[in-house]
Amino acid sequence: MRKKWVNIIGLMVLLGIFASSVSIERLDEVKSRAEGSSFDAAAYAGNFWENELLPNLDQAVEINQLFKGLENNPERTFEEYSNALGIGNIRFFMVKGSGTVAEVQDNHIIINTKSDSLSSKTYPVKIATEYIFGNAVRDASGKISLTEFKETMDFNMVSAEINKLVREGVIPQLNGRTKEGEIIKFAGAIEMNKRQVDLRAVEIIPVLVQYNSKTRRNE
Q: Which CATH superfamily does the domain covering 2-215 fall into?
C-alpha cells in the first residue's frame, strides 16, 4: 500500500512539472511566428483609414435615402448601395447623414435623422458607442478584397485593427460628451440581412462624427 501511495505522489509531482512547463498562446500568434509572417495589419488598416476610407465618405449613401429605398424597393437598393464579400444575405452599407440626439444610452446614441433635400421624414438610428467588433467597416467600404491577402488570418486582423481605430479615435468623441438636443453629422457602416430588413434595429459603426458648434454646450 505504501509503495502505491509513493507512486501516486510521484505521478502528481510529474504532472505538476509538466503543467508548469506548458504555456498557452493565441493560435494566430503561433501561426504567425511559425510562418515568419511580416504582414503589418495595423499599418495596412491605418493606410486604408487615412487614404481610402475617410477621403471617400462623400460617396456613402445618405441614410434617409437608403431607408426610403429599403422601404420602397429593397432588392434594387441592396443591389445599388451594398457591398459584401460573398453571395449570402449579409450585406454592408457605408452611410452618412445628420440628426438630432434624442437619447444617450449606455451602449448607443439614438439620433433622429434628417434630410433637407430628400424627405421631411425622420428615422431613429443607433450609433454604437460600445462593443465595436465584426467586419462592417472593412466590408462596407468595398475597397478591401480578400484576394489581396495570402492568409485569411491577415484579412481578419485588418478588420480587428480597423475596429481598434474606431474604438480609440471615434468613440471617445461620443462617450461622455454627447448631450440630448445636439445636432451631429456622422458617417459609418451598417450590417444588414437582406431577408430580415428591420429599420428599427439599424446600428451604425461610426467612422466620422462632427458636432454642430451652435448646439454644443459647456465647451
A: Envelope glycoprotein gp160, DUF2291, alpha/beta domain (2.40.50.420)
Helices vs. strands in the chain: H and E counts, helices first: 7, 6
Would you state the cell numbers that stand for residue 69, as one nine-digit string? 429605398
How many CA within 13 A on the CB side of residue 72? 6
**Helix, strand, or coil here: 196?**
coil
Q: Domain spans of the chain?
A: 2-215
Q: Does pTM top 0.90 for this prediction? A: no
In what helix (H) or strand (E) does residue 155 lie, and over which residues does it extend? helix 152-165
110-116, long-range: CB within 8 Å, 24+ apart, which pairs? 111/184, 111/186, 113/63, 113/64, 114/64, 115/62, 115/63, 115/64, 115/65
Q: What is the mean pLDDT of the chain?
A: 83
Per DSSP bridges, beta strands 108-114 and 183-193 are unpaired
User: pLDDT tens digits, residue range 197-216?
Assistant: 999 889 999 999 998 765 55
Look at residues 127, 121, 120, 119 and name the one whose alpha carbon lies nearest to residue 95.
127
